[in-house]
Amino acid sequence: MTIGAARYSWRGTDRHGKRQSGAMPAANPAEVRLALHRQGISASRVTPVAAPGRNCIDRHVKFGTGARIKAQDMSIVTRQTANMIKAGLPLLQALTIVAAGTEHPRIQQLLVALQDRVSSGGSFSEALSEHPQYFDRLFISMVAIGEQSGTLDATLDRLAGFHERDAAIVRKVKKAMMYPLAVLATAILVTALLLIKVVPQFAATFADLGAPLPALTQWVLRLSDLVISQGWFWAAITIGAALGCYRLIQRRRGARLLYDRLSLQIPALGPLVRNAALARICRTLCTTLAAGLTIVEALRLSATAAGNLVYQQTCFDILGDVEQGQPLAFSIRKTGLFPVMMTQLTNAGEESGTLDAMLEKCADHYEDSVDNLLDGITSLLEPLIMTVLGLLVGGLMIAMYLPIFSLGAVL
Fold first, then answer.
1. pTM
2. Residue among 286, 328, 325 nearest 305 (CA)
3. CATH of the domain at 190
4. Does 306 reside within a domain?
């Protein structure tokens, strides 16, 4: 037995359907299931065995060790599970195969925990609800509907597509912002280096000349002195204020609401935030309605998926109107926050009974709009940031060489 490994007892069936049982040492239950799978045994239950003189090792103690589970990882696992069920495999066997096929330790542990819960008599949705850090209300509610309607494979496939699109939008936003932020950070570091290391050397030379300095040069010299004497203080103040605002936004709903409302008013960025929220709302609505959820539950889940408190509150207002019998299109129009196109398509969907299809068209439109806005913002930011960088560095250099040019003109 390897150091740190525990001993696990297992039960399962072999290729011929015969019941098998035994025990083996392993670091975690996923290793046991993987080893049994290689032997042609499908494990139905794996439990830790208490060593003499020690308490039984709980499999949840080390749950969460290893690399963090990303949204993309969960989308892949969901898609694979859906494909296994579509192929006619039972849920437990599908989870076993997916767990054996992944090298991600946390995903293996998560899938093993789900298997144990389902094999002990719980439903899949109940097993998912025990891990809210990985599965939100939307995921659990749709799986529950899929189990009840016998369409779990289609539901999981739809969920995988939903999360893949959402992750794609987030990935594009991060990619679009990465280059400008990197250039901006470089500009700040280069400027600070020039003010701390280069400008003081010029200042010593100018002091020996004893000639009056241009106003721009004097201003840069004073800025250099300020950065050298109080730079760390102001940097700490700036970082502390930024962290404080971030914490406040994360913990205080009022601050988050103000931040989300202001983000909608920022030129160029506001339309991007608005269309991203609309895309999420429409995509969640069409996905949940297509899965069989009621309009009330679909609106409730869409509100939590909006990603913006302004639209979240608006969705709850719409929910209240719909519960009172108002048509969805009328309730959306009354808020004034949704475009006319979405209102018209929603109205057409309600009248024709194809609301989920119409909302899917809205989601596609706003997702494409987010892509176009990102491309436009990126193409606008690149020359703007390069111009700022050139002005900062070039301005400092000009300020330092102005006295030399003036002295040369006098001579």
1. 0.69
2. 286
3. 1.20.81.30
4. yes
